[in-house]
Amino acid sequence: xxxxxxxxxxxxxxxxxxxxxILFWVPAFAKMTVLCLENSQTPQSNSYSFxxxxxxxxxxxxxxxxxxxxxxxxxxxxxxxxTHAPIDVxxxxxxxxxxxxxxxxxxxxxxxxxxxxxxxxxxxFMRVFGESGKKTPVIMSHGLQSHSGWFxxxxxxxxxxxxxxxxxxxxxxxxxxxxxxxxxDFMIMVEDIHTVAKFVKKRHAKKKIYVLGHxxxxxxxxxxxxxxxxxxxxxxxxxPAIYTKTEPSFLWKIRILxxxxxxxxxxxxxxxxxxxxxxxxxxxxxxxxxxxxxxxATGDFYYQVHRARKFIHKNNNRLxxxxxxxxxxxxxxxxxxxxxxxxxxxxxxxxxxxxxxxARHILEFSPEREKYFDDLANxxxxxxxx
Length: 386
Known about the structure:
This protein is an alpha/beta fold and about 375 residues long. It has helices at about 1-5, 10-40, 45-75, 90-95, 100-110, 150-160, 185-205, 220-225, 250-260, 280-290, 300-315, 335-345, 370-385; strands at about 110-115, 125-130, 140, 165-170, 210-215, 230-240, 265-270, 295-300, 325-330, 350-355.
């Protein structure tokens, strides 16, 4: 009983946030009230129309009252703010403690960590592979829970083809020292890719780059290609999370929607399971041992993901560069049906779709790894010649 009473103690910050949420809905309440009154003031108005209007009015009042109570309960039942400080761990300490497979360890040994400042002086961490390569550089973006270390095998493979690879850690993920799992504007992800792209194009004297997005990384990658299409030679989407089957629970969604943008500093648990990523036990053990993986993200982060998806949907007509999409037939995370619909709406003249029947989600953590690598090599070689 004591625990239950403590659960609903209202700290000062919670009271402030509840007040903000109630105020957030006041304009909507006023607008709906005006609409109801306007509907009642018609030439044909009679006692029945007045009763109908009052019924609508009472329905709106009760709905808004329910929303206010729900916001109040959610803020009291769940701490309104949780720390999301960056993880203080070095690359060397991380590599020492992970249960990496021999192939993954070998790939990680071929990288170096490089840091460049973002547009707002927040450092961008990258794993760089094959810096001396002469072909078009590739910028890689990782998934929601993962970071650049997970995709060292594909990065090392692409670098072996002669392409310099710059595998980024998204702000608040991996080695990044930005607030953990937080995002106040999805365009920050786009601009971080743009910052790396400008750096890479200058270093390698290239006008264009390839961008590759794994799972969630397909969102900032596709958004970047929409915003800066002239910089992109080709777009690579592997098991893209443009649309997904896994989402936060209903109550978390309600809380995110009721929270004004920029105030969602509460942490929402990652809805993914270790077994969702791979069917191979060796890689499951690696994922379980990874202290850099992202276990939760802020409410603001999830809201910005929603905004980013809307941006991509609205601007997909700008994806005219060559595109290749790889999907895993057994994927429990990505919504393949909706992603295929998205793919077929892309206006690019050169579209390539490949399905991997024996893969769960991460293609390089699956029995289809070699086929995936061969497909990447063939596609890059073909596009390089155009």
